[in-house]
C-alpha cells in the first residue's frame, strides 16, 4: 500500500522536499529487528549468540539489533521472559530517565503492550514501583501477561482512564506518556497503518493527547520528570502538543537536566520551551519513527494529595499459609504476602503499603507476583511464580528439557514421565523456567496455561 498523499505533502511541508524524499524512501525499506535483554534471566552472552545479535543499540544499555528476524514464537527463551522484542527507537526513553532510578515510582500511563513498562521495571529495582495503566481491556490483558513474564515483581497493572489515575496527585517521580497517535512512524513496519491514516485522525489524536497530558501532569510530584512520546512524525501531535500543554501549565514546567547524545545515533534534538525534544527518523536513525520530549515539574508544582481509600481488597493470611508461601522465595523476609480473590500474592515489603493504597483506589488487574492457590495447606503455583526472579529453585525439583521438548511443553503437549520427579516440577530449558508440570505415577500433567500455549507449528 502506498503512502497517503496528504501524509507525503505534510512531510514535505515540514522537512522540505529532499529530506521528505529520503524519509519516504526509508519507509519503503525493511525495518531492523531488535530486542532488549532481561538482566535477571540467565546467560545473556549465550542468548545473544543464539539470536545472532549483530551490535548493541547505542541509546539503550540492554538493547541489540539482530542480523535476521528469528521465529520468536518458537524460541523457548522468549517464552521464559529472557528478552523483550522491542522496536529500537522506542528504547530511546532510557536516555530520558533520571540517572538514579532505584526505588523510584514511575507511572507508565499508556502502557500496553509493555515494552516501556518492563524497561522501567528493570530500572527502578525491587525497591521501586511501576504503575502500568492501559484503558483498553483487551490490551491490558496482554500488558499483564508481559509483566508476569518479565518477572521483576515490582509492577502494578491497572485499567482506567487518565483522570482516574490523576487522583494520585503529586505521587510519581516519573510520569511517562507514550500517547496514542496516528502511527505515521510505523508505516514501514505496519502497512495497515497507512490505510487507517487520515488528517481527521491526526486531529482526534492531538485532542486526546492534550487531555491525557494534562491529567498526567497532576500525578507528577514537584521536581518530578515528565516524558512524552509518540510514534508519529506530524508536528500537530508532537511539538504542537507540547506548545498547547505549555500554554496550559505555564511556569510549572521547567527544564530537565540535559541529555547527552552521540552523533552516531542520528537523533535530531530540538526544543519547545522547557521541553527538550528528540526525533528519530528512519532515514537518519536505525529504527522506526519516534518522537520524545522531557521536562520537569517545578518545585512549586503543588503538594501530593491522595484520594480517600476504600475497603481493602487484600486479605491477610494465617501463619501456616504464610509459611507455605515463604518457602517458595529466596528471600522470604524481604516479602509480604496476602490474598486477593482466590489467589495469593507476594510483594516486596518496600512496595506493599503503596500497592495496598493503589488496590483501594484503582481498578488493579495485577500486581506484585501471583503465587497461586492454596489447597489443604499446599500451594498450587501460578504461572507467574515460575518467571519470578525471586523464586527459590530449591523449593521443588526441576526438569531440564531440550529445545524440541520445551516447544512440545509450550504447546501443552505431553512430556515423558521418566524425565520428571514424582509430584510438582519446575520445567526449564537452558536453565530458564518455562512453567510447571506435575507427575502422577506414569503420567505428567502439563500445567502450562491454555491461553499462552503455542499454536504455531513451524
Give a description of the structure.
- This protein is an alpha+beta fold.
- The chain has helices at 5-15, 17-26, 44-50, 76-80, 115-124, 137-150, 162-165, 192-196, 199-219, 239-249, 319-326, 349-361, 383-387, 403-410; strands spanning 33-37, 53-56, 63-66, 83-84, 105-108, 129-133, 155-158, 172-178, 220-230, 253-254, 268-272, 275-280, 290-297, 335-340, 343-348, 364-367, 369-375, 378-381, 398-400, 423-429, 432-440, 443-446.
- Strands 5, 6, 7, 8, 9, 10, 11, 12, 13 and 16 form a 10-stranded mixed sheet that branches. Strands 2-3-1-4 form a 4-stranded antiparallel sheet, sandwiched between helices.
- A hairpin with a 2-residue loop joins strand 11 and strand 12 (275-280).
- Helix 1 crosses helix 2 (17-26) and helix 9 crosses helix 10.
- The radius of gyration is 23 Å and the shape is globular.
- The model has no long low-confidence stretch (mean pLDDT 95).
What are its keywords?
single chain; 458 residues; alpha+beta; Nuclear Transport Factor 2, Chain: A; 10-stranded mixed beta sheet; 4-stranded antiparallel beta sheet
